[in-house]
């Protein structure tokens, strides 16, 4: 997924507090005084849900909020469409509109047109068919039956449920039901998608299939997705940025690489320890600058240049830019054969280039199969860096 | 003998005071019923008209037309041939033993009181489901209505409205309305919170949530309540006949006072036939809605 650059945040959460209980407003000062969750519970019987949450979510990004159960993540996501009202704080959308000051009508409009939601246990209506469920958002808006059915049919086809329109949710598997949930969410054309542990109830295989599908859809739709999960692998896979929530407080917000490589606290560190880094990191974050450049055109010149270097390989450049990898032994063999010509394509090693955005896991076999660091080449053919066995080993072994 | 002491006998209110309380309560209520009786009767007049018209329709129409209509309804609602044939045979037997007209009268009052119970009960159940405070008031009221011996509330109803169809109807409704209220409340409260959240999240208004999510999903429960209500209304038929409701209850009452065993048995069996008809039909319908609604 691409990182949105230099856009104003679409949603800003400011100093959000949630205290559950009858007299929350009366007791909220205890939270400001810094009393802990347990102290407040013992003193007033009120449960602290969220404490001083500040977030900025950019347009078009996938923002993952992750935490263990009880961390307040499901509470937090329900604030964006006001299924829960906060005790204190504000949530600004489009720069200046505080959704907490919306009237009932305006709130309904926001829920109908701007935000849609996908639920952990799907939240489908058992008495309605798959088609009617997908079209639910539009039917609430009063869109004509023909129009909403047309749109729902299209979306069902996109999520891979063509032919299931007349079935009831109970006749579908969990994965299929959640696809209906996705179709329902996309059907209203809302630009903000709230996903509350949307894939947590699915088997691992189906879950990763759904993750792929979401990533794929997001590439073309470019929605702003707020995704809740307790699964760090899922967070790293989907998130442009990740916020880590613990006991109602934000611990760290950052890109997946940052969370993995620079955990802010011991808690986050313990969290990321067991992560499969090979699957979470891209080549870009691990690669080193490519130092050994060969620029001499003649074989003898190139060999001489290479002998001055500490390594027995080099990345060959001519006037057209990066050409490929040459090994010292190839040049030596050519010299021995009496070849005095220029370096040409036939001397280059026959390897597939790897791209900076490749997932580390996918390039490990190639890295292990070659004796020299692999060149990392972007889609314009420019050499961006090199990936050696030792840098891969470093990042994977260093917790 | 020793004097009566509070140790041996429960300390009692003075007899005169008790009489005074009774007198003043009875007097107040009598005054109230004299003052407002006619007005309240007028209020119930449309219901009475409907009840009379419906009874006339059932009694005066040719028996075969009524029978065809009944069997048609039974089949439409239950979709069961077996049940329809069974009911046909039973109804023919009822008619053959000379109880057709009484059965029709009973059928009419049961139908009208069930409809009244549904029309009143479902909205009350909805209110109850929306507010815990309403629930905390309605639940004990229903408990009292269900356990208070029917004769006790027959008295004020008769004082107010005299003897006849409307007091009978009111007595039946008071006795039978509880299940439909309770199960509407329960059904709505049991609707999956995530489904309801989904409706809210997509911008449904409270009314849209009620009509298109809560009521359809609680339909199996509501139907179970309606079924119970019908059964309770049928069991009230004999008692209601004491205040002038015509139908199968009256011959049963007569057979108790005169010890006509066979007459009591036959009329009792006719009530059973009606009960089976209502019960099986409404259960078959509830089962069908349940199949559609239940997930997982």
Automatic annotation (TrEMBL), chain A:
<dbReference type="InterPro" id="IPR046342">
    <property type="entry name" value="CBS_dom_sf"/>
</dbReference>
<dbReference type="InterPro" id="IPR003593">
    <property type="entry name" value="AAA+_ATPase"/>
</dbReference>
<keyword id="KW-0472">Membrane</keyword>
<dbReference type="GO" id="GO:0006970">
    <property type="term" value="P:response to osmotic stress"/>
</dbReference>
<dbReference type="GO" id="GO:0016887">
    <property type="term" value="F:ATP hydrolysis activity"/>
</dbReference>
<keyword id="KW-1003">Cell membrane</keyword>
<dbReference type="GO" id="GO:0006865">
    <property type="term" value="P:amino acid transport"/>
</dbReference>
<dbReference type="GO" id="GO:0005886">
    <property type="term" value="C:plasma membrane"/>
</dbReference>
<comment type="subunit">
    <text>The complex is probably composed of two ATP-binding proteins, two transmembrane proteins and a solute-binding protein.</text>
</comment>
<dbReference type="InterPro" id="IPR017871">
    <property type="entry name" value="ABC_transporter-like_CS"/>
</dbReference>
<dbReference type="GO" id="GO:0015418">
    <property type="term" value="F:ABC-type quaternary ammonium compound transporting activity"/>
</dbReference>
<dbReference type="Pfam" id="PF00005">
    <property type="entry name" value="ABC_tran"/>
</dbReference>
<keyword id="KW-0997">Cell inner membrane</keyword>
<keyword id="KW-0547">Nucleotide-binding</keyword>
<dbReference type="GO" id="GO:0031460">
    <property type="term" value="P:glycine betaine transport"/>
</dbReference>
<dbReference type="InterPro" id="IPR003439">
    <property type="entry name" value="ABC_transporter-like_ATP-bd"/>
</dbReference>
<dbReference type="InterPro" id="IPR005892">
    <property type="entry name" value="Gly-betaine_transp_ATP-bd"/>
</dbReference>
<dbReference type="GO" id="GO:0005524">
    <property type="term" value="F:ATP binding"/>
</dbReference>
<dbReference type="InterPro" id="IPR027417">
    <property type="entry name" value="P-loop_NTPase"/>
</dbReference>
<dbReference type="InterPro" id="IPR051921">
    <property type="entry name" value="ABC_osmolyte_uptake_ATP-bind"/>
</dbReference>
<feature type="domain" description="ABC transporter">
    <location>
        <begin position="11"/>
        <end position="272"/>
    </location>
</feature>
<keyword id="KW-0813">Transport</keyword>
UniProtKB/TrEMBL annotation, chain B:
<dbReference type="GO" id="GO:0043190">
    <property type="term" value="C:ATP-binding cassette (ABC) transporter complex"/>
</dbReference>
<feature type="transmembrane region" description="Helical">
    <location>
        <begin position="83"/>
        <end position="100"/>
    </location>
</feature>
<dbReference type="GO" id="GO:0005275">
    <property type="term" value="F:amine transmembrane transporter activity"/>
</dbReference>
<protein>
    <submittedName>
        <fullName>ABC transporter permease</fullName>
    </submittedName>
</protein>
<keyword id="KW-1003">Cell membrane</keyword>
<comment type="similarity">
    <text>Belongs to the binding-protein-dependent transport system permease family.</text>
</comment>
<keyword id="KW-1133">Transmembrane helix</keyword>
<dbReference type="GO" id="GO:0031460">
    <property type="term" value="P:glycine betaine transport"/>
</dbReference>
<dbReference type="Pfam" id="PF00528">
    <property type="entry name" value="BPD_transp_1"/>
</dbReference>
<feature type="transmembrane region" description="Helical">
    <location>
        <begin position="229"/>
        <end position="248"/>
    </location>
</feature>
<keyword id="KW-0812">Transmembrane</keyword>
<dbReference type="InterPro" id="IPR000515">
    <property type="entry name" value="MetI-like"/>
</dbReference>
<keyword id="KW-0472">Membrane</keyword>
<feature type="transmembrane region" description="Helical">
    <location>
        <begin position="260"/>
        <end position="278"/>
    </location>
</feature>
<dbReference type="GO" id="GO:0015226">
    <property type="term" value="F:carnitine transmembrane transporter activity"/>
</dbReference>
<dbReference type="InterPro" id="IPR035906">
    <property type="entry name" value="MetI-like_sf"/>
</dbReference>
<keyword id="KW-0813">Transport</keyword>
<feature type="transmembrane region" description="Helical">
    <location>
        <begin position="106"/>
        <end position="129"/>
    </location>
</feature>
<feature type="transmembrane region" description="Helical">
    <location>
        <begin position="150"/>
        <end position="178"/>
    </location>
</feature>
<feature type="transmembrane region" description="Helical">
    <location>
        <begin position="57"/>
        <end position="76"/>
    </location>
</feature>
<dbReference type="GO" id="GO:0015871">
    <property type="term" value="P:choline transport"/>
</dbReference>
<feature type="domain" description="ABC transmembrane type-1">
    <location>
        <begin position="103"/>
        <end position="282"/>
    </location>
</feature>
